[in-house]
Amino acid sequence: MSANEAHDLTPLKSAWKTTLGVVGTLLGVGVVFAMLVYLLSVGLVKPSVAGGLTDQERYDLLSQVHADDQKMLTTYGWMDQSKGVVRLPIDVAMQKLVQEGWNGPQPAAAPAEGEGQQ
Prior knowledge:
Layout: H1 3-42, H2 55-74, E1 77-80, E2 85-87, H3 90-100
Antiparallel strand pairs: 1-2
């Protein structure tokens, strides 16, 4: 075999390696998939449920979150009573914004003397 003939076989060897790699990968994925199907079918592995909750429990939890969100958007309340920060219903807050305008975020107040020092 001459040097030219050996050189001509190099792309063929490379193609074989690529083909074997692809086939091996596909077989590996197929084996893993088959094992999962088998384990699920015999009940050794159960699909996980979010947080171990049933569908009804998740539905009830989501309903409660929506109710809490709706309450926060539609009622007055204290956000931080010690600082005098209140929560307004969203429709009232939007009306105040339209009536009074908005000048962008206000800069933070300078700390009082001695505040923030260690």
